[in-house]
UniProtKB/TrEMBL annotation:
Cofactor(s) demanded: NADP(+)
Keyword entries, A-Z: Carbohydrate metabolism, Isomerase, NADP
Role according to the record: Catalyzes the interconversion between ADP-D-glycero-beta-D-manno-heptose and ADP-L-glycero-beta-D-manno-heptose via an epimerization at carbon 6 of the heptose.
Enzyme Commission number(s): 5.1.3.20
Matches recorded under Pfam families: Epimerase
Superkingdom, natural source: Bacteria
GO BP terms in the entry: carbohydrate metabolic process
SUBUNIT field: Homopentamer.
Domain remarks: Contains a large N-terminal NADP-binding domain, and a smaller C-terminal substrate-binding domain.
Species whose genome carries this gene: Dyadobacter helix
Protein name as annotated: ADP-L-glycero-D-manno-heptose-6-epimerase
Known pathway: Nucleotide-sugar biosynthesis; ADP-L-glycero-beta-D-manno-heptose biosynthesis; ADP-L-glycero-beta-D-manno-heptose from D-glycero-beta-D-manno-heptose 7-phosphate: step 4/4
Length: 321
């Protein structure tokens, strides 16, 4: 059996879909299933059992002999949430409890960290574990992810295999429920469909022109492939970046969304809200050398390829992965 936390969410549900395609049918889906807005993400998936998040640890104690692997994808990911208590409960302490179960029962683990741990990128975007305690995230979400990374590295007792993956800017199918936290492509598609236009944040940094703020955008299908690679690989434990390795501008992103929709780009700019202006990232780019050094060779979608697939095969038909 394979446990997937955050199973009804954006990445977790896509991961289950790909596991099913690769012949894995004994999936234990863990989530807060009271959130019905995510229910469609699991339609058509082959799942052995749904387990409420609050019941997970009792379930593991009763069934650990049959658990082959845990993907801990679930987390509170709202970067506009500022309650440290919520993040401590859901992102730090819950993750620690999963870690302890994986140690006790020798279950291999892949968990989701985040590029939000890098803050403004003062120390670069290298997944060097020695620098992790020095990173300065910009919000409580990033703090919670970095706090757990630091804690994991400090532990004397570790699972027989474990990996933390620092997800960069993920986009792709199954994010319909995410509201304002959905990807820029998702919002661009809907805004263009409604108005034939798209508004982006103006640059307030003289080093960047309007729309040329840059992010490492990674297509969710590529991210899922890396997760499954580690399930089979099961060596070289540690913390890894997971982005495309290539920063692109928001203007590129939106232009390609227009083109995938068969429309002429019409982009304008609005001021970045003052409350986030001083914490706004103008550049992120994952150094992917570490992952490649352990033998990962699959190519990643270019931005053009990913946007076209997402728009034409999912957004335009409201389809799911």
């Amino acid at each position: 059996m394979i446990i997937v936390t955050g199973a009804a969410g954006f990445i977790g549900s896509g991961l289950i879909s790909q596991l099913n395609k690769e012949g894995f049918k004994s999936i234990i889906a863990v989530d807060d299933f009271s959130k019905i807005e995510k229910a469609e993400n699991l339609e058509g998936k082959i799942i052995q059992e749904k387990v409420e998040r609050t019941e997970l640890f009792n379930w593991i104690d009763a069934n650990y002999r049959d658990v082959e692997f845990i993907f801990h994808i679930g987390a509170r990911t709202d970067t506009t949430e500022f309650s440290k208590e919520i993040f401590d409960e859901l992102n730090v302490n819950f993750s620690k409890d999963i870690w302890h179960k994986c140690v006790a029962y020798q279950i291999p683990l892949v968990y989701a960290s985040s590029a939000a741990t890098y803050g403004l990128g003062e120390l670069g975007y290298d997944d060097n574990e020695a620098t992790i305690p020095q990173l300065k995230p910009l919000n409580p979400y990033g703090d919670s992810k970095n706090d757990f990374d630091i804690w994991a590295l400090e532990q004397e007792k570790k699972p027989l295999f474990w990996v933390g993956l620092k997800f960069f800017n993920v986009y792709g199918p199954n994010e319909y429920h995410k509201g304002r936290m959905a990807s820029v492509i998702f919002h661009a598609y809907n805004q263009i469909k409604a108005t034939e236009k798209m508004k982006l944040f103006r640059s307030h940094n003289p080093e960047y022109k309007d729309g040329e703020q840059m992010r490492d955008f990674i297509y969710v299908k590529d991210l899922i492939n890396v997760c499954i690679f580690f399930m089979h690989h099961r060596k070289n434990s540690g913390i890894y970046n997971l982005g495309s390795g290539k920063a692109r501008t928001f203007k590129d992103l939106v232009t390609n969304t227009f083109l995938a929709m068969g429309k002429t780009p019409d982009i304008s700019f609005v001021d970045t809200p003052e409350d986030i202006r001083d914490k706004y990232q103008y550049f992120t780019e994952a150094n992917m050398a570490k992952l490649k050094s352990i033998g990962y060779q699959q190519p990643f979608h270019t931005l053009e390829e990913g946007v076209e697939d997402y728009v034409k095969n999912y957004l335009s038909t409201h389809s799911y992965l």
